[in-house]
Design brief:
CATH superfamily: Flavodoxin domain
Shape: globular
Number of strands: 7
Largest sheet: 5 strands, parallel
Structural class: alpha/beta
Mean pLDDT: 94
Order of helices and strands: EHEHHHEHEEEHEH
Low-confidence stretches: none
Strand order of the largest sheet: 2-1-3-6-7
Number of helices: 7
Number of domains: 1
Radius of gyration: 17 Å
Length: 196
């Protein structure tokens, strides 16, 4: 059974292009993969940001944690487990000031966990999540995907590769301020190709 994890990060609840297109892609993927299960995590609802205690406690083996440390890391553990369990991850990632929303960065901080999603070896860092597929649905007002001003694409490619996920595809409704209808149509055409 295919498990699909949806990550929404747009601060907008209504009229969000990234949310709409992300949901459309997930619906088509769920149809394509018979008996797929979909789990949705809306990180814009708010995630805790790293604290001094979190930074030091996160490297401890789970069996060595105190009750307080388990509480400190409960949210992180849940987010990591969702990602580890997923076969397909669909990330709605609007461009905010040339980068990802703070909520999505907080999610990345939670799921990039040594010993669980990556490890260090004599060869350097090694991702532990190989074999997953990631789709990133990007919406931007004026930044063209792949342009010198696009810091979303290279950042997310690097982060997921660091975790061992190299099969990543971007669906862009970029430059919405210039031609919203054309931009959304291109994104929907890409979704149709993926779902075919």
């Amino acid at each position: 059974m295919t498990q699909i994890l949806t990550i929404h990060s747009s601060a907008r609840r209504s009229d969000s292009v990234s949310r709409t297109l992300t949901d459309e892609l997930v619906a088509r993927l769920a149809q394509k993969h018979v008996n797929a299960t979909v789990r949705t995590r809306d990180v814009a609802d708010g995630l805790t940001f790293p604290s001094e205690r979190w930074v030091s406690d996160r490297v401890l083996p789970r069996d060595d944690r105190t009750e307080q440390q388990h509480l400190t890391l409960a949210e992180t553990d849940a987010l990591v487990e969702e990602l580890v369990d997923a076969d397909i991850v669909v990330v709605g990632a609007p461009t905010y000031n040339f980068g990802v929303p703070a909520a999505l960065k907080a999610w990345i901080d939670h799921v990039a966990q040594p010993g669980r999603t990556f490890k260090y070896s004599e060869k350097g860092p090694e991702g532990l999540l190989a074999g997953k597929k990631v789709y990133v649905v990007n919406a931007s007002g004026g930044v063209p995907l792949g342009s010198p001003a696009d810091f979303v694409t290279p950042y997310l490619k690097h982060v997921f590769a660091f975790l061992g996920i190299t099969d990543i595809e971007f669906i862009a409704a970029d430059q919405m301020a210039l031609s919203a209808d054309d931009s959304v149509k291109r994104a929907r055409d890409a979704i149709e190709r993926i779902a075919a």
